[in-house]
Amino acid sequence: MGDSGPTYLGLDLSTQQLKAIVVDDQLKVLDEAYVQFDNDLPEFRTYGGVINKKESASVAVAPCLMWVKALDMLLDKLRVCGVDFAKVQGISGCAQQHGTVYWSKGSRELLRNLSPDKFLHQQLCNAFATNYSPIWMDSSTSAECEILEQTVGGPQNLAQITGSKAYERFSGPQIAKIWRTRPDAYANTERISLISSFVASLLVGDYAPIDYSDGSGMNLLDIRTKDWNDQLLEASGPDLRGKLGETVPSYTNLASISSYYVERFGFSDQCRVIAFTGDNPASLIGMRLGKGDLACSLGTSDTLFLWLDDPKTLPEGHVLCNPLDKDAYMTMLCFKNGSFTRERIRDSAAGGSWQIFNELLDSTPRGNFGNIALYFDAPEIIPALVGDHRFNKADDKISRYSSKEVEVRALIEGQFIAKRAYAEDFGFVIASNSRIIATGGASANKTMLQVLADVFNAPVYTTEVANSAVLGAAYLAKYALHRDKNNFQEITKYIPEPQLLCTPYSDAESIYKPMVARYRRIVAQLLKQNASS
Ligand SMILES: O=C(CO)[C@@H](O)[C@H](O)CF
Q: Which of 1, 204, 447, 483 could anchor a disulfide with 5, C-beta 3.0 to 4.6 Å?
């Protein structure tokens, strides 16, 4: 269909920015726009889209009104790009997972009666019981995690029910902390959204439901029944079921877009809003992950995920409901120290230049002369460690490396060796048909991806655009509207296959298989030292 055909809009509210992508009926990218929170909304004084509270490094929040303002700005940017909103047939989206938004009493009426003559943020400035939403980088809820695990008889049982043992960043512990520390705000809360369903609510002009996939990242949802677990709700806050509302499959066709967007931006009143989901489930969609593939998202946080037909209980990592098939699942492993850490070493070793960083990386041999290191700016999720830990070829812990080249390679090899160790723990087997599909900002760096291919001893592919989350959101919009006639493969058949970018060197397995074993020994030793200190 020429340029008169229907289009689909995908949104991604990530940590650092709000992104939009417009695709045509064959899912070809027509337009993209971004609102960078730090640069475009400096009045909110975020760093990387985040505010780390002074009193504690482990508290991480973001101003929800910043996200509201960003939506108006983003749609204005798309309009300036010449996007004809009247052709948008469906909108879906995704967002950073686990963060929670607390709508104050009466806000549903505000959403239902948005005036097209004013900005969203002018009308919603009093819509939130707390103006700062806890986000996934917060790790201040260890006490609440302990309570949730005790409620159901321990971490293994919690993982069996909800897909994960308790994690500080998960929404259940975060909601419980608000209830404990801000009882007034909790009492004044009419609805709690995830950040994904919060954005969908802005577009629908009413409270949008939480989807199964993003809801799996809360330590509250039973991933088999898809319903809230009442024991866990009671342990997280009174009347929580009423505040959370019902859950829906990620491909649910929610409603027509609010008249606010019809009158202010020219959307058709037939434009449908689809449920929003988490950024990682959306990436699984955007990469059209097949069974046997391993997806590696290299962004603010690094994330690995796989498609699963049946749920498993994992000691580490997460099992989520699958966004494309309500009876399937996906596994996910998150590493908090992703691009911020890579940028720190780029700044200290390569003067802030990726070109120099890559030259340094290319100038050292695979295996880095036996050096191996772990770098954690923030408390890492897996393993639960923080700080820099450098080791020489004799496994002696040292405070610094003599050369910048060694430091750069130690960072990248260390991050990828850790990923291989945990991917193998949750069942990934490197076979002849294995593919590593890389996405996220750093997947544009071929020098880094060569190390990824070597460490995993598997070919690395990349998808059409660096950020598959926002692409997956756009695919979800079309899939949701046409799934009754076509399956996902049919709907996405026009999309080019992921491109092969790097293949491993023949000596890679002989170098990195032993380094994975060394990594496990080093981490066990560091965790043991932590436990005894
Ligand atoms: O915490 C995470 C997933 O569990 C991260 O990938 C966030 O979704 C990043 F926004």
A: 1
Q: Per residue in 335-384, pLDDT tens?
A: 989 999 999 999 999 999 999 999 999 999 999 999 999 999 998 988 99
Helix-strand-coil split of the chain, %, nearest 5: 40, 20, 40
- Ligand 1 atom 10: the closest Cα is on which residue? 96
Structure tokens at 110: 């505000």
Secondary structure class of 426 (helix, strand, coil): coil
pLDDT digits (tens, 9 = 90+) for 435-449: 999 988 899 999 999
Shortest-distance Cα residue to atom 9 of ligand 1 = 96
Whether this model's ipTM surpasses 0.95 comes out as yes
Q: Is 196 in the pocket of ligand 1 (CB under 6 A)?
A: no
pTM for the predicted model, two decimal places: 0.86
**Ligand 1 center to 268 CA (angstroms):** 33
Q: Is the CB of 336 under 6 A from ligand 1?
A: no
Residue with tokens 């405070």: 399
Question: Are the C-beta atoms of residues 281 and 330 closer than 8 Å to each other?
Answer: yes
Q: What is the DSSP string of 502-528?
A: E---TTHHHHHHHHHHHHHHHHHHHHH
> What pLDDT, on a 0 to 100 scale, did the predictor assign at position 465?
59
